[in-house]
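Now for a specimen:

…
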Amino acid sequence: MGLVQENLLDNARRMTALAQDAAFGQAFDRAAELMISALQQGNTIFACGNGGSMTNAQHFAEELTGRFRGNRPPLRALAISDPSHLTCVANDYGYEFVFSRFVEAFAKPGDVLFGLSTSGKSPNVLRAAEAMRAAGGIVVASSGTDDTALAQVADVSFALGTSLWADRVQESELVVIHSLMQAIEDGLGYSGV
């Protein structure tokens, strides 16, 4: 068996375990409800993460402002990923503040932060979650396990399954992100548009 076949089978095993996890399913449903409600009230969903999780955060936001499955109005979503902001804050305050300073500048009560951290320990994502809570917003967290500092701050936390490798958690993250997009479109009445 080749490398790609082994990786696909490993993904299938992990995705099957996640699909059968009742606690995960409940957390997903709750997160989708919170995001839909925030958008219905004119609030914004912010997303952040590091490395591959940053690209997943960007993908989440651009599919909501652009389109996912069909034509519909743009939805209020923003990835905290502007290079000038990130490098300015990292240089002047430290990398652990790159997301929280953005949240402090723009978040208002009722907004949602979707924080992606494969370890659940990223100091910059944790600070962003704390800043969102301080702003009166909601925190949805995604990580490999549910016993992390980020999960403790979050209103809802997904545990995507432990792995030695962050890329495995990020692969599950992407399926969850696509599912959230679909749930949001369906919940807002845009399915099949």
Remarks:
- The longest strand covers residues 138-143.
- Strands lie at 45-48, 77-79, 112-116, 138-143, 156-159.
